[in-house]
């Protein structure tokens, strides 16, 4: 009877050891898949932040939304205007009209040029190894917000800015920033 109880306990421990090893292996494989996905997303973010000026200029024009009929049995997808991936860094026509009414002749160019002139007032990060922090890429998100990428050649980061336009005068407020 004692030997049977010991054998049952040993079998139970062996089963638990195998079960927990199997769970650990499953979790490690899921973690490896998640790491691959994160690496892929980081590469996409890096490509986005390191785009050249030629690519930047082509994305600044507003895109035309496409209308796709949705069958009645499917759930409708949101229109392109609610997804920011393709429109990040471009003003809609209504944003451009509002900014023109506030005194800007060419809103995107005026905002970018003004921010480049005033970048020392919004950049608080210090350069390293003799570098000077400077804004390298600007995305005007809408008629109130902009995002900028800055770097000194060694380190970089992003700024989230709010701007206000009054009679053609632009004022900038830094809302958030981080360095990479």
TrEMBL record:
* Region listing for Disordered, in residue ranges: 51-88
Q: Is Coiled coil one of the keywords UniProt gives this record?
A: yes
On the tree of life, the source organism's domain of life is Bacteria
State the coiled-coil residue ranges: 24-51
Which stretches does UniProt call biased (Low complexity)?
58-70
The alphabetical list of record keywords is:
Coiled coil
Q: What is this protein called?
A: Uncharacterized protein
